[in-house]
From TrEMBL:
The UvrABC repair system catalyzes the recognition and processing of DNA lesions. UvrC both incises the 5' and 3' sides of the lesion. The N-terminal half is responsible for the 3' incision and the C-terminal half is responsible for the 5' incision. This is UvrABC system protein C. Residues 15-93 form the GIY-YIG domain. The gene is uvrC. InterPro entries: GIY-YIG_endonuc, GIY-YIG_endonuc_sf, GIY-YIG_UvrC_Cho, RuvA_2-like, UVR_dom_sf, UvrABC_protein_C, UvrC, UvrC_RNase_H_dom. CDD domains: GIY-YIG_UvrC_Cho. It comes from Aequorivita aurantiaca. Pfam families: GIY-YIG, HHH_5, UvrC_RNaseH, UvrC_RNaseH_dom. It is found in: Cytoplasm. The lineage of its organism: Bacteria, Pseudomonadati, Bacteroidota, Flavobacteriia, Flavobacteriales. Gene3D superfamilies: 5' to 3' exonuclease, C-terminal subdomain, GIY-YIG endonuclease, UvrC, RNAse H endonuclease domain. Belongs to the UvrC family.
Length: 598
């Protein structure tokens, strides 16, 4: 069993692919693992009895769990490999050797060779990968070899040496695998055109190549060569599942620090990814409390300096989401697309997950404190006299004036209180008049609360602009509640908040928790009202047809619908089926009605 601190950390882990890291109470890294679902994988360590003695000891030592979220399970595998080789955790034994994942190299030569390698040599050559399976590499190279004649020799094919006839074609030429560039039989331009096509195949643009394989597979199957066809099918499967891009290991991005920021009203969360030799070797998120409403730019600048000092970073280049001032000796780059943008987005994703986890942990540890903070924030943001512990939101719903209804949803302490939801049929308004409908339901709602001596809300939210707000105010005036209950209107398009007697709307920060709760209230009122409206329309349509039949009353209609569920099924039912429910007399009337209709 995990201790309380570890249990809390597990409860807020994400259900995403990534890498998890276990640390002991002294902050020493014990173990690095990968997972398709981080939360499930980590939970499994604590939810079952461990048979392995080493694992039992590991679990007892775990004090802190950290994680890095990535896009795919393949990226998780690569990241795990990077971290284990970098930090050599005590309880990882499988990946501590120097073996690395394979790459495909297009050599920096006049007539480039294409071959697999596990070593990255920075001589201007192109490297694609890394691959988690050598089988994928061999399949790709076999495909390339079958499509394009490439040299495999390591001769220096300079123009002077070819002109001097230094070399002779080898067996590969006679087998048709090479077109003989060593004797000048293959032009440099044509060779490089083929290399460009190979680049596309390696990057994953191999639609034509897949078509060739599928044609080949069908031809083999037609000739009853099923074993060979199956081998070709395996190649197709591998190519279709092949991923050419990895944000976790990318030789184009070397020795760079990546920073991103996610913020709300109170805190900024800055994520730091450190890349060394094209691989992510560290992820850290710093939480910064705002003191003077600092901007994201100000917070990020402070965080970059602090994080680089803490981890003693020597990188001379950083990737950030916007321009920052961090000194002339550091090159600042704001990626717009491609691999660099992808690595910045990965950093942002980790910052978002960290923020979500902090919120979840706060709710679990001290739900009252979380509620108090939100209520205090809403009071401040909405310029209220008291905390809005009880909020009610109204929304009208009608389609072309038919079946007008309204809904009132209630939130208490920032959460829906569904037992207090109320729905209204509009009684005094003819036609589609949203303003008059709003005036009616607000009046009816608070007249009843006053009569029953029920507690009134601290805040009323009207779904609509100035018109709906003015209508609601008329009802509060009639009930002498103006000034006793705060009331605002929210316009849908720009999320404008309107106050009584104030022509200028209030705009809340889009990241604001206050705005999120108001939007949740508005959306919940809309959903509740629409559901009621649809139910009413459907019931009216059913009732209208069945109740027009002479001798069929409301009670009979309810019995029929309860059993058959729809008018269509009632119409298709036999005499025996109907008579069992409503008796022979009414069954005859129903059969006669639907026969005449048909």
């Amino acid at each position: 069993m995990a201790n309380a601190s570890v249990s809390l950390q597990i409860a807020t882990l994400p259900d995403s692919p990534g890498v998890y890291q276990y640390y002991d109470k002294d902050g020493k890294l014990l173990y690095v693992g990968k997972a398709k679902n981080i939360k499930k994988r980590v939970s499994s360590y604590f939810n079952k009895l461990q048979g392995n003695g080493k694992t039992k000891v590991l679990v007892r030592k775990i004090d802190t769990i950290r994680h890095i979220v990535v896009k795919t399970e393949t990226d998780a595998l690569l990241l795990e490999n990077n971290l284990i080789k970098k930090y050599q955790p005590r309880y990882n034994v499988m990946l501590k050797d120097d073996k690395s994942y394979p790459w495909i190299c297009i050599k920096n030569e006049r007539f480039p060779r294409v071959f697999p390698t596990r070593r990255l040599i920075r001589d201007g050559s192109e490297y694609y990968g890394p691959y988690t399976s050598m089988k994928t590499v061999h399949t790709l190279l076999e495909l390339i070899k079958g499509l394009y004649p490439l040299r495999t020799c390591n001769y220096d094919l300079s123009e002077e040496k070819i002109r001097a006839q230094k070399y002779k074609v080898c067996l590969e030429y006679h087998l048709g695998n090479c077109a003989g560039p060593c004797e000048g039989l293959y032009s440099e331009k044509e060779y490089h055109d083929n290399i460009e096509a190979i680049r596309n195949i390696i990057k994953g643009n191999f639609k034509d190549s897949l078509h060739r394989f599928k044609t080949q597979m069908k031809a083999l199957a037609a000739d009853l060569k099923f074993e060979q066809a199956q081998r070709v099918k395996e190649k197709i499967d591998i190519l279709e599942n092949y991923q050419s891009k990895s944000t976790v290991v990318n030789p184009k991005i070397n020795n760079v620090d990546v920073f991103s920021i996610i913020s709300d009203e109170s805190y900024g969360y800055v994520n730091f990814l450190q890349l060394s030799h094209g691989s992510i070797i560290r992820s850290h998120t710093l939480e910064i409390k705002k003191k003077l409403d600092e901007t994201d730019e100000e917070l990020l600048q402070l965080a970059i300096i602090e994080i680089r000092q803490r981890f003693n970073s020597q990188s001379r280049e950083i990737y950030v989401p916007f321009e920052v001032e961090v000194g002339e000796e550091i090159k600042v780059h704001v990626p717009k697309l491609g691999d660099k943008k992808a690595i910045l987005e990965l950093s942002e994703r980790n910052a978002k997950y960290y923020r979500m986890e902090r919120f979840k942990q706060a709710k679990i540890v001290d739900p009252d404190r979380h509620e108090k903070r939100i209520m205090a924030q809403m009071k401040k943001d909405l310029r209220l006299k008291e905390e809005p512990r009880h909020i009610e939101c109204f929304d009208n719903s009608n389609i072309q004036g038919t079946n007008p209804v309204a809904a009132c949803v209630v939130f208490k302490n920032g959460k829906p209180s569904k037992k207090d939801y109320r729905k209204f049929n509009i009684k005094t308004v003819e036609g589609p008049d949203d303003f008059a409908s709003m005036e009616e339901v607000v009046y009816r709602r608070y007249k009843r609360l006053l009569e029953e001596e029920q507690p009134l809300p601290q805040l009323i939210i009207i779904d609509g602009g100035k018109g709906q707000l003015s209508s609601a105010l008329k009802s509060l005036d009639k009930l002498e509640l103006r000034g006793k209950i705060a009331i605002i209107g929210i316009a849908k398009r720009l999320e404008e908040l309107f106050y009584p007697n104030d022509p200028i709307p209030l705009y809340l920060d889009k990241k604001s928790e206050t705005l999120k709760i108001i939007q949740q209230l508005r959306n919940e009122a809309h959903r509740f009202g629409i559901t009621f409206h649809r139910t009413k329309r459907s019931k009216q349509a059913l009732d209208t047809e069945l109740e027009t039949i002479p001798g069929i009353g409301e009670k009979t209609v309810l019995e029929l619908l309860k059993h058959f569920k729809s008018t269509k099924r009632i119409a298709n039912a036999s005499y025996d089926e109907l008579s069992k429910i409503v008796g022979s007399n009414r069954a005859n009337k129903l059969i006669s009605h639907f026969n005449n209709k048909n």
